[in-house]
Amino acid sequence: MTELPKSPYKGKTGLQRVLNAAGYSWSGLAMAFKHESAFRQEVFLALLLIPLAFYLGDTGISRALMIGTVLLVLIVELLNSALEAAVDRISLEHHPLIKRVKDMGSAAVMIALLNVIVVWTLVLSG
């Protein structure tokens, strides 16, 4: 079996790899915040809800559930935005597969937001 060529970007190890990864992650967050209005809205929602979870949650588990659902929305939005950017890079034409990808990404964000509502309602209703 033939071995695939190695990526020139995968050569760093140890602490340098961790530092590079942190820089790439920070850059990704900054780009999402700068270019994606939905991500900005969800960050502002998180800035409101996360402190509220500390105040309203009765136990560590309830706080973790409430905060985890909010962070999940941000994760799903980042993945959705990455998918949309990759698809737009390939083609800006109207195509049924492109629409499918974008609609599925949007549906994932919607489900994550519904998850926030369900979990918060269940936690707060006791």
Let me know the largest β-sheet.
none
Structural Rg: 19 Å
CATH topology: Helix Hairpins
| Main structural class | mainly alpha
The ordered string of helix (H) and strand (E) elements is: HHHH
Supply the CATH class. Answer: Mainly Alpha
Number of helices: 4
Concise overview:
It is built from four helices and no strands. With 126 residues, it is an all-alpha fold. It has a single domain (37-125), classed as Orthogonal Bundle (Helix Hairpins).
Model description:
- The protein has 126 residues and is mostly helical.
- The chain has one domain: Helix Hairpins (Orthogonal Bundle).
- The chain is built from 4 helices and no strands.
- It starts with 13 loop residues before the first helix and ends with a helix.
SSE order and pairing:
Layout: H1 14-35, H2 37-56, H3 60-90, H4 96-125
Helix pairs in contact: 1-2, 2-3, 3-4
List keywords for this structure.
single chain; 126 residues; mainly alpha; Helix Hairpins; 4 helices; 0% strand; globular
